[in-house]
Structure formats: C-alpha cells, structure tokens
Amino acid sequence: MNDAELAAHLAHCAGQILLDVRASNMFEGKSLGKAGDQTANQFLVHALRQQRPEDGLLSEESKDTDERLSKSRVWIVDPVDGTREYGEERSDWAVHVALTIDGVPEIGAVALPGLDGGIVLRSDRPGNVPAHEGSPRLLVSRTRPAAEAVAVAEKLGGELIGMGSAGAKAMAVVRGEADIYLHSGGQYEWDSCAPAAVARAYGLHCSRIDGSPLIYNQRDTYMPDLLICRPEWADRVLDLVREIDG
C-alpha cells in the first residue's frame, strides 16, 4: 500500500470507527466528542507507527515531541476535525490524514463520514472542481466568523456560508459548494494539512492570508490563518486582505 492509499484507507477506517462510537448511544455531547477523539486517535497512531515506523507523527490528540522535527517525512493527523459538530451529530466534521515531506503537504485524505454514504477526498485522485458563475460564496465558522472574511465578502458582494470543521469547509470548495475559505481566527497544523494537500491536488489556491506558502512540521504548530479558494479569486482576495489589514 503506497502512502496515498494508506492515507485514504486510514481516514476511511477512522471515520467508520467514529460512526460506530456515535451509533453505540453510550455517549452524547462533549463526552461523545471526547470518546470519538480518543478512539480514532488510538487507531490512527497505532496504524501509522506500525505501517510507517520511520516517519514522524503529529496528532492533535497525542502529546507532541521534538522527534518529528528531524524527520523529512511527517504524518499530520486530526482524528476528529470538528469535535463539536461530531458531538452534536451534525454532518460537517472530518477526519484528516496527511503526509508532509520537508514541510510541504504532499499527500492527504479527508474523510467526510457524516455525509450520506460518507466520502473520502484524496490528493492522488483529484477531479475537476465544478464551475460556478456569479458572486462568490465564502465559508466562515458557524459560531465565530472571521472578521477578515466578513469584510472581504462585503467588498466582493459575496454570500457567507456558515459551516463547522476546517476540513468540511475546505472540501466544500473542492466539491464546488463554495468558492473561498478565508480563515484568520487561528488554527493548528492538523486543522489544515490534509485539506491543503487535497485542495492543492485539485488545483485550488492554498496559502497564508499574506500570500506566503503553508509550511508544516514546525516546532510551533500554531497556524494563524489560511486561504483556500478557486484560483481566479486568489489575487483579488489577497489584495483585499492587505487593504483591510493595512
């Protein structure tokens, strides 16, 4: 099984585990989110350490160490991206499995198990992003919309769409359900690594909101912002962000 196949397989399996935990009816709310996080993380970490023992590993739900910093190949995973949405039994949550090589998100898989039938979007099997005409659709947090995104939407005459997890938002752009995902409220590497790998493979623009590249496997895993969007909107959005922040 090559790296891309492994990423997709693990994302799918972790998603099925999470659905089983939810279907057990043993947990609800925050306790469901915690149980799902722990169970999916245990599976992903054990599988990666068994299948790729020489690679580095960073997971939201495991204690970080400096070991990964000396590695060229580092897996970055988020067992449940959108724990709140998962715990509330919504559909806008995801599982992220990515492989970075020298800090670049080269391979990724994002599972969306909560959708009907469940899907896994993969960097090794990109498709065409469906066309969209008209004003842009911008994705924002359903609970904490980023100020820059709201301001950019106003200047573009765009529509704001509230959604849960970062992975669900990024994949909504990949799937043609939205055009721009602009986030400036702070995230961590595991929130965007797999989505960025998939989005890049689909030909979308991926960067920080100042236009600089997304670089992973850093000592400080905090990543304040990102932009994932259709390429035709990238320059306009970046210019507006500079104008707003300037």
UniProtKB/TrEMBL annotation:
<dbReference type="GO" id="GO:0000103">
    <property type="term" value="P:sulfate assimilation"/>
</dbReference>
<dbReference type="GO" id="GO:0050427">
    <property type="term" value="P:3'-phosphoadenosine 5'-phosphosulfate metabolic process"/>
</dbReference>
<dbReference type="InterPro" id="IPR050725">
    <property type="entry name" value="CysQ/Inositol_MonoPase"/>
</dbReference>
<keyword id="KW-0460">Magnesium</keyword>
<feature type="binding site">
    <location>
        <position position="191"/>
    </location>
    <ligand>
        <name>Mg(2+)</name>
    </ligand>
</feature>
<dbReference type="GO" id="GO:0046872">
    <property type="term" value="F:metal ion binding"/>
</dbReference>
<feature type="binding site">
    <location>
        <position position="60"/>
    </location>
    <ligand>
        <name>Mg(2+)</name>
    </ligand>
</feature>
<feature type="binding site">
    <location>
        <position position="78"/>
    </location>
    <ligand>
        <name>Mg(2+)</name>
    </ligand>
</feature>
<dbReference type="Pfam" id="PF00459">
    <property type="entry name" value="Inositol_P"/>
</dbReference>
<keyword id="KW-0479">Metal-binding</keyword>
<dbReference type="GO" id="GO:0008441">
    <property type="term" value="F:3'(2'),5'-bisphosphate nucleotidase activity"/>
</dbReference>
<dbReference type="InterPro" id="IPR000760">
    <property type="entry name" value="Inositol_monophosphatase-like"/>
</dbReference>
<protein>
    <submittedName>
        <fullName>3'(2'),5'-bisphosphate nucleotidase CysQ</fullName>
    </submittedName>
</protein>
<feature type="binding site">
    <location>
        <position position="81"/>
    </location>
    <ligand>
        <name>Mg(2+)</name>
    </ligand>
</feature>
